[in-house]
Amino acid sequence: MESIIREFNLNVDLAVEARDLVRGSGTREIPGVEEEIEEMENIKIHTITIKDDTGSKAMGRPPGIYVTIESPPLKINDPYVKEDIIQAMEKSMKILSEQYLRAGDTVLLVGLGNWRATADSLGPKFIQYSPITRHYHHYAPEALVEGMRPVCAIAPGVLGITGLETQEVIKGIVNNVQPALLVVVDALAAQNVDRIGNSIQMSNTGIQPGGGIGNMRHALNMETLGIPVIAVGCPTIVNASIIAQQAIKKYCLDTGMMYNDLKSLNSIKDILSYFGGSLAVTPKEIDDIIENSARIMSMGIARSLFPGISQEQLELYAN
Amino acid sequence: MESIIREFNLNVDLAVEARDLVRGSGTREIPGVEEEIEEMENIKIHTITIKDDTGSKAMGRPPGIYVTIESPPLKINDPYVKEDIIQAMEKSMKILSEQYLRAGDTVLLVGLGNWRATADSLGPKFIQYSPITRHYHHYAPEALVEGMRPVCAIAPGVLGITGLETQEVIKGIVNNVQPALLVVVDALAAQNVDRIGNSIQMSNTGIQPGGGIGNMRHALNMETLGIPVIAVGCPTIVNASIIAQQAIKKYCLDTGMMYNDLKSLNSIKDILSYFGGSLAVTPKEIDDIIENSARIMSMGIARSLFPGISQEQLELYAN
Amino acid sequence: MESIIREFNLNVDLAVEARDLVRGSGTREIPGVEEEIEEMENIKIHTITIKDDTGSKAMGRPPGIYVTIESPPLKINDPYVKEDIIQAMEKSMKILSEQYLRAGDTVLLVGLGNWRATADSLGPKFIQYSPITRHYHHYAPEALVEGMRPVCAIAPGVLGITGLETQEVIKGIVNNVQPALLVVVDALAAQNVDRIGNSIQMSNTGIQPGGGIGNMRHALNMETLGIPVIAVGCPTIVNASIIAQQAIKKYCLDTGMMYNDLKSLNSIKDILSYFGGSLAVTPKEIDDIIENSARIMSMGIARSLFPGISQEQLELYAN
Amino acid sequence: MESIIREFNLNVDLAVEARDLVRGSGTREIPGVEEEIEEMENIKIHTITIKDDTGSKAMGRPPGIYVTIESPPLKINDPYVKEDIIQAMEKSMKILSEQYLRAGDTVLLVGLGNWRATADSLGPKFIQYSPITRHYHHYAPEALVEGMRPVCAIAPGVLGITGLETQEVIKGIVNNVQPALLVVVDALAAQNVDRIGNSIQMSNTGIQPGGGIGNMRHALNMETLGIPVIAVGCPTIVNASIIAQQAIKKYCLDTGMMYNDLKSLNSIKDILSYFGGSLAVTPKEIDDIIENSARIMSMGIARSLFPGISQEQLELYAN
Fold this sequence. Notes:
Helix content of chain A: 25-40%
Number of strands of chain A: 9
Number of helices of chain A: 13
CATH class of chain A: Alpha Beta
Number of domains of chain A: 1
Strand content of chain A: 15-25%
Structural class of chain A: alpha/beta
Order of helices and strands of chain A: HHEEHEHEHHEHHEEHEHHEHH
CATH architecture of chain A: 3-Layer(aba) Sandwich
Shape of chain A: globular
Oligomer: homotetramer
Low-confidence stretches of chain A: 210-214
CATH topology of chain A: Rossmann fold
Distance between the termini of chain A: 42 Å
């Protein structure tokens, strides 16, 4: 699948999917990469740890911990499973952040994406539903519950609308506000439609454009911002070219024909023509999926940032 | 392509694409179907006339006139081509409606779809940008330009949100308001991504669910409503299963392998799994495409309904 | 206050405020009108019963029961008080509707107002958060919890945008769908800013334009629709002319000056000039107030329509 | 009117209204302040120049040029007057900015306010309709018309939602992007309902909180950002306390009674009670007024920033 990803300049945002791509059809271990799976009633938690440069090179992303919480009811805001997902996020966030974050430290939330384009509005919606407290510390400390830390947030918009790189916006805020931790939330691209609205990935590596190691100009991470960055995301689309390639591969497999990657790529380029790699595949229910996962993710993060504060109290500080 | 359309219960909304499906790779004439093409600088107008039951059966839609205006700049609201598209719509609308509509007759506009789901919001947005005048006739006739007919509009919502069939909502309004003509606007599904935001189809046959002849319970047409119904639409999505099938077919063609429709269908069902036929392919720019085509379509229809009234004046009556 | 209400064609939507206007500064009983007050920890329930024509004439609204649930935390979606308000609504709805509604009967919800104008979007938002089940009865009965009745809903829009009277839209739906009960929700105008986002009025009299008895052409009630209509509303605005008059009256009272109603009216007309009676006073937090009260009201109504179904289950059927 | 403004912590955003407050009922000249009026068919342009500290103290705002374009059709997006307003803005912007801005210089647009609260969404909507070009300079210079300068934009949100001061967001962007000029757009509060959607104020002094000289911590101006800042705004609300006071004053005047400012203030505080100074008066049409004025303002500013580029071309670069 490498060639189609390069051709259309696609992201492999999920570490669990990168692992599958590296492994191919086998199940061999990847050197420098460790994996752990925890299964509960409605939820499965994969933890992939990239331990060194060998693992990093193989997986196409920086060393660090990548936690993926899988739960199909995420997408429907199932009131019965919601609390389980929130608790799994709370626990994972603590593992990823506890070394950086002391009581009272300020946290900056960043919601990437475009609130006017549904499938890309997860980040801004996450911000909307997150409890924000930093201004109360300045102007009305009596309105805070004892022990609430300062949390602030921004949805910086996207390059095509602002003409600004995300880093150009965030770097200055980090300098002025001096948070101890940045949590950045974004909609992700998956390689498989089943992932849409079903997984939450959380990692302590920040965000690199293209999900890769490349260009530092646009990364949001410790190296570029000087503070630890936890990246959180949920898949909302699959690129249409991926679906097309999967179809061809599956058909070849099912019919015993030979699959040729380059020829497949050319056929796909022909049928996607004008819009090329910009075609996204989403379920009809995408608006609801975004809404529901944004609400659950905002509560999962909030519960970890405000330990001991109840869900009901937190909701009073959300917008 | 028939099997995939049946399997996933898809629509072939565009008559020009139904014609291509019927013809296959050939270019033979279809009995009972006539076609005419007019080419201008930025616009191509296809007029397909289904003349009898033979044509109707072949094309899978009722006898009548289907006009398709093709213009790639439609999707970007190109200020230079906009006026050309509006004039083409005005002219086509007149051909489709002039036998039914006299000066002063009331017209009801119906915008189908769900304004909260981007790719399905074309109908409601069309209503939003259309000049509405009927209430002025009752309450403030002095606010109307001489010769403006009564035009009213409704966006009835979708079954999944209202629990109501469209026909249940519209039938009563038609009875109470007694319009001479109904114009119904909806987002369409295409068989080809190039069609998205590039074509406007207008027909004098009304709307049938599935684009087909079947169930009259849900149709909006002369038979069910007792008044002529002009259907207007613009493609905003392609079903993901169509893309997958096109990819397999193209790959077989390009590599000289044999294409088997049933095996292809099974491979596709496997890769689309959970979401099945509900996966839509849209360009990343879909929000803008909807916005731009809704504005142009509302002006094209308005200019035909209010002959002699300038664009500037009409804009004053839009919401 | 009568003259200003006539002059600017204002509504006195709340029965409790109509009662205050009738009584003036006194506390005398109004012939033909009975009142009962129930006080709980966070909630006060006023029940005003207009028993005959004498009461109806005095109060400027038809005979019937008007329940007002007062609870200041309504506007902030306080998670601690929310359940109390929902239970108060459930109980009041039962008193108002139980004579009309048997298990399995269909209910039609109507959300009046304009979803694009914040202070007027309560009705459409109420619809959005209400569980809708009627289409499952037709297409997927297995997806329903045992005992769920068919509930459908529509937000018909406003005259200025559709060119249609609400009655013209609703009458036909009632004829086609044959519901046993209609529940209509609308944003209300109050006489006092303290009422905004603090009260819910529920009555078994339906809706009359101007809150009055007048013109039947636009009413939604038993007389015009042939089925019982329960009207539910929450105040979201006060007209600016009311504020202006209250200020003048209070100043006269505080300074011992004489208040002259006609002169006051003229002064007010001068300062409101161009926009006249169309000026609404709303708190800066109006968007949140609408959002929160719509959510609580949808759950209060839903709980009464689906007895025995849990909150969590109901949320799965909301959009 | 001073006492009510202090009591409720209100802004006098418009220089033309500050002048009226200073002058009272007289028409005397204000030392250190010059005024010029230009009248055209549909438009009146007031230019107030505060020349020194004496004028600054009297007017409660920094020395500089304040241009107010008055045109009642602004609020309805009248297609006949639109071009006149755009040209008046273009001309005024040039007077205010030409000393700072050379061909090719980068400009940063800042849209203040909250896009989720209608009356406060003018700034974010202005950004939405403005042509943005900076990213093309980096990634696709061939997509630009010859001579287009880099323009970028951000809507930083409001303190209550982000927990961030505007200056904390903007300062870093200015440091990273190094624009030659900042244009900041915001919704304004007027003292008079006639001003709503009827005036555009443009000044070369930047923005100070409270429209005053006070606290530099929150100002956006040359002093705090190190670059020239042009502030542009349109009145969208009047505070309810202002309306109340005007009503009392007018009534006293009309009836020959004595007006007492302190007593008036106390009466007003009583009637506004719970919501205090947060009550805003807006016309029912506020959503349309915001939409229309945002579109016109974005074009007026764009035409001045991109001289020689046609309206049609500019629209292709707006989002």
